[in-house]
Write a structure and sequence with these properties.
The chain is mainly α. It has two domains: 1-48; 59-213, Lysozyme (Orthogonal Bundle), CATH 1.10.530.10. Helices cover 64% and strands 0% of the residues. The protein has eight helices and no strands. It has helices at residues 2-44, 59-84, 92-103, 107-118, 145-160, 167-170, 188-202, 205-213. Helix 2 crosses helix 3 and helix 2 packs antiparallel against helix 8 (205-213).
Length: 215
């Protein structure tokens, strides 16, 4: 009788133990499946890439910065020219800046040359009543000062700023790639460099143009 009771108790206990184990297996199995699904969702999620502050500068920002620097340059050039030649054409500063930036020519150099040639178009062949030849280019008549400045840049890039030569080279020896001189005056380079150094030293034109080139 006692053995029968023990056997019945053992059977009941075993049955309950199996039920508990089954419940635990289901619980752990569900947790493992949920963890696996969560990991899979994370792997499928789009990656978030880090963008540095420099890379985050948009094209619109760049355009606005360049426009701001260009306007500063025009104002700086205008202030200087008004002191040197109060009667010069009002749009010459704008033409000089645009041409210098578009052709990658030192604006201070351009200013120095027209300063010693025609004082910004107010003397000699540079006058509106003459040929508007601001840079003293021989036998050339221009319809406006913008054309005169653009043609000057074309002449420099085609004949003078060649074979690795820069504006600094021209202030030592202003000759074409074939050796032809720009001016007959033997002291031309000295006068040009003096004017250039004064413009560079007394204005922010050179530094503003260098800043513009970074964008």
């Amino acid at each position: 009788m006692e053995q029968t009771k023990f056997t019945r108790f053992k059977r009941i206990a075993t049955k309950h133990l199996l039920s508990v184990l089954l419940v635990l297996m289901v619980m752990f199995g569900s947790a493992a499946i949920a963890k696996c699904e969560k990991q899979q969702n994370q792997n499928n999620a789009p990656k978030i890439e880090y963008v540095s502050p420099v890379e985050n500068v948009t094209k619109i920002d760049t355009v606005q910065i360049k426009d701001s620097l260009k306007n500063e340059l025009i104002e700086e050039v205008s202030r200087y020219i008004k002191k040197q030649a109060p009667k010069s054409h009002q749009f010459i500063p704008k033409y000089l800046v645009h041409a210098g930036l578009d052709n990658d020519i030192d604006i201070c150099f351009m200013m120095a040359q027209t300063q010693i040639e025609t004082c910004y178009g107010t003397t000699g062949a540079g006058r509106e009543s003459a040929r508007r030849s601001m840079f003293g280019i021989i036998k050339k008549r221009y319809p406006n000062y913008e054309s005169a400045i653009n043609h000057y840049c074309e002449v420099l890039n085609k004949h003078y700023l060649v074979k690795g030569r820069t504006e600094q080279h021209l202030m030592k020896k202003y000759v074409t790639g074939k050796g032809g001189r720009y001016a007959e005056n033997p002291k031309y380079e000295t006068e040009l460099k003096t004017a250039y150094n004064h413009i560079k030293r007394t204005t922010n034109i050179h530094s503003l143009q260098n800043e513009y080139k970074k964008f």
